[in-house]
Amino acid sequence: MSSSQTKLQRVRHDIKIRRLRVEKIEDLSASLKRFTFSGDDLGSFNSASFDDHLKAFFPNAAGELHLPQVGDKGVVFPEGVAKPAVREYTPTGIDLVGERLALEFAIHDAGPATSWAKSAQVGDEIGIAGPRGSIVLPMDLQHYVLIGDETALPAIRRRLSELPATATAHVIAEVNNAADEVALPSAASVAATWVHRNGKAAASEAFMLPALDGLNLPKTDVQVWIACEREQARQLREWFLAGGWDKDAVRYASYWNKGTAAYHEPHED
Q1: pLDDT digits (tens, 9 = 90+) for 62-84
Q2: Where are the strands (E) in the chain, listed by range?
């Protein structure tokens, strides 16, 4: 496959801090919650790619939300207050006219974001900044292979929602068990392979690698996208390269790193 088929477009966005209010909470599975937020200035929000990531700022233990400001030297927090907990999320449902934005939270190990998501109610607030930029992947290919664990499901679901009916997509998704599987709506023809850890810790084994051996995945006119734990993502990418896939057709991102909190590694070329 020629590299022109997988040509990337990089888009930069101005950073703006926004305060959002919870309008709706939905349980998508046993471990994935969807929050719909409203915001007075979401009409200017910009997200050009399905795997964009923005920074979310959470209230402190007292329920106070201290947001930074964008200055000449970048993002600056108010003096005299502790910085809020920050995590990164993929914007999913985007309604610029109605000024609504959806984020999907994977409920896993205890942390400030998971704690907030478990107890959040309509009317609660968070802050967001970004996305800083987008890496736009092609939309005119025949085949798409989307691979990831719970943390990648929001991006996978957004990608599927944007694919045309002329495309085919194969999803390989790792979750704990069948209760964690989610709907994958798309106009495209979608085949899903769910890999279950069945109580084992995430990234304690290479759960998705064995599943790949039994699949007849396309090698031409295809874009492969991988996102999960850092070492798992690298192993999965190497499986594709060793199997003869063009390196330009295989994108991967580290959405988390085993043993490291609040981690994110930018996408790799």
Answers
A1: 889 999 988 777 788 888 888 89
A2: 9-12, 17-29, 32-38, 54-57, 69-71, 74-76, 86-89, 91-95, 100-106, 125-129, 133-136, 143-148, 168-175, 189-196, 222-229, 250-256, 265-268
